[in-house]
Design brief:
Blueprint lengths: L5 E5 L3 H12 L3 E7 L2 H11 L3 E3 L10 E4 L6 H7 L6 E4 L16 E6 L16 E5 L2 H12 L5 E3 L2 H30 L9 H10 L5 H4 L9 H10 L4 H18 L2
Parallel strand pairs: 1-2, 1-4, 2-3, 4-5, 5-6, 7-8
Antiparallel strand pairs: 6-7
């Protein structure tokens, strides 16, 4: 069994940017970047001295593996533009089934890094879980080896499990981050810097290293402090969307204690 050493990317956004960096550092050969806008592919290609182009210019025979890192809603249209190939075709999506790739290559798989990536923010890849899946034992072994060159945390996860993990990730990262945004907005209206919340935010994530989230819960809802909740809801009357979120989450916390 020969390993994966030559990688091409279809899509050059957040995930491609981070995977390309860590893969180049691990000594993998980045053989091309292809995207909707040639300019974004060119930016990455320039860093790694690789060819670039639009999706239909991808020379599949040059790559052991092609990583399609595009939004889920764009996957079908992008696959239609990539020539059918015998390279191991991968996507990086949390929720798309592996079989979304089945008409585009006989060898398909998933390479899902479980982290939040923004192109402009560096991450330490060595601790990021990579969830792999492939449609043959041989490719599963190759993906395990490939992921193992980037991180110490490699998991074999099927499409059904990955979708559930993705939903859990949305609750624990995307929604929490949106709530940070709400908090920042509320403080800004009072000319108070977001920094005032930083120690609280850090202790909240620190605490769940030792306690389960259920046991770490504090605040008026878990204390059943209905009077305080009423005052807060009154205060939020001019911000009905924030009020709705506050009310729903408070109700859910109270309910979880009575189950
Ligand atoms: N970001 C994360 O935190 C994260 C983490 C793990 C997994 N993922 C998964 O990785 C995949 C890619 O995410 P991403 O954050 O890297 O996406 P992204 O930065 O928004 O975009 C990735 C690429 O997709 C191309 N693209 C966007 N819309 C398109 C369309 N309608 N047709 C054709 N190409 C289109 C963009 O092309 P141009 O820029 O060239 O126009 C870009 O190169 C998704 O499945 C996502 O679920 C994301």
């Amino acid at each position: 069994m020969s390993g994966i050493s030559k990688i091409a990317f279809a899509g050059s956004g957040n995930v491609a940017t981070h995977l390309a960096k860590v893969m180049a550092e691990a000594g993998l050969d980045l053989v091309g970047f292809y995207s909707r806008n040639k300019a974004s592919a060119e930016k990455l290609a320039h860093i790694y001295h690789s060819p670039y182009g639009s999706y239909n210019e991808l020379k599949t025979c040059n790559a052991d593996s092609i990583i399609v890192a595009v939004p889920d809603h764009a996957m079908e249209a992008v696959l239609e533009q990539i020539p059918v190939c015998s390279s191991l075709l991968l996507h990086t999506s949390g929720s798309l089934e592996m079989n979304a790739l089945q008409h585009s290559s006989p060898r398909i798989g998933v390479f899902y890094p479980l982290q939040t990536f923004s192109a402009a923010k560096l991450v330490d890849f060595s601790q990021i879980p990579i969830l792999v899946e492939a449609n043959s034992d041989e490719d599963t072994s190759m993906l395990t080896e490939l992921a193992g060159r980037l991180t110490s945390q490699v998991y074999h996860i099927n499409s059904h499990q990955r979708k559930k993990i993705h939903i859990a990730a949305i609750f624990s990262s995307n929604f929490v981050n949106y709530l940070f945004h709400v908090a920042e907005d509320l403080l800004e209206k009072e000319n108070v810097p977001f920094e005032v919340l930083r120690p609280l935010i850090e202790e909240t994530t620190e605490k769940i290293k030792e306690l389960r989230p259920f046991h770490a819960q504090t605040g008026p809802a878990v204390r059943n402090d209905l009077e305080t909740i009423k005052i807060h809801l009154k205060d939020l009357e001019k911000m009905p969307e924030y009020r709705k979120i506050y009310q729903l989450l408070s109700q859910q916390i109270i309910k979880s204690r009575n189950q």
